[in-house]
Design brief:
Helices cover 37% and strands 7% of the residues. The chain contains three helices and two strands. A two-stranded antiparallel ribbon has the order 1-2. The chain starts with 6 loop residues before the first helix and ends in a 10-residue tail after the last helix.
Amino acid sequence: MPDAPSRQQRQQIEARADGVCEYCKSPVQYAVQSFECEHIIPNENFTLIIGITATGRATVKTMRLNRSGVLNLRRILLMASEHPPEDWR
């Protein structure tokens, strides 16, 4: 599994996200628990999204981030060198 984001990556993620979770769109100011960008991570080949916290698992399940069509799309993009995004590598 990939390592947790570096400090620089975390800052880039936070700036890009503009105060919300990029997956569930929960605003930082309304978060009940600490706001972590590590609540979901990709597997080794970046095709499967894994929830590593209760929030992450709920997000993956609720948003169906690993439905078959999305997994197939990630595999195709991986073969075309279009996935994962540069900042995930």
